């Protein structure tokens, strides 16, 4: 991993919500087993602690909709499931971020209604306000919202880095393939490498 400036580093935790990573969440049947088996949330929490301790910024992106879903366009099968199951409603318990990676004082939570974290949100403004250069990504799913938000970060001029053991997908194969694709463009690192760099 290349050197990083801790003060200009942020970690973006993507979709650490019960609806996504808990067994009884809407998308839990796809991801919960992978999250638990690979201890992904514990690695994500470790990255967040290291970033906070070194003076960086911790950000979470989450999906939440207004009652009645006036902000939802059901143009994919996954999006169509959301109103059918009354999922991802603002204020609902399953829309909360899980306790293992829960935001702390000083962290920023970005709420969005599409697939990725930059689209239609203030995420870019928040990062630029803190003069962030490097963004570390953790979360679910590696091949969907994590990679999608990382690709957006490239277009916004940031240095995006995916933390491989702090992300997962529905299958190990999908996770590995996404990391291999991302590695052709950006950096892929482990939690241990991040912690080591930030603790220097």
Overview of the molecule:
By secondary structure, the chain is an alpha/beta fold. The chain has one domain (6-198): Isochorismatase-like (Rossmann fold, 3-Layer(aba) Sandwich). The protein contains 8 helices and 6 strands. It has helices at 18-21, 28-37, 40-53, 77-84, 123-129, 142-155, 172-183, 191-198, and strands at 9-14, 57-63, 108-112, 134-140, 159-168, 187-189. Strands 3-2-1-4-5-6 form a 6-stranded parallel sheet, with helices on both faces. It is globular.
Classify the secondary structure makeup into a structural class: alpha/beta
The radius of gyration over CA amounts to: 16 Å
Query: How would a crystallographer describe the biggest sheet?
Result: 6 strands, parallel
Order the strands across the largest sheet as they lie in space: 3-2-1-4-5-6
Shape: globular
Uncertain stretches of 5 or more adjacent residues: none
Number of strands: 6
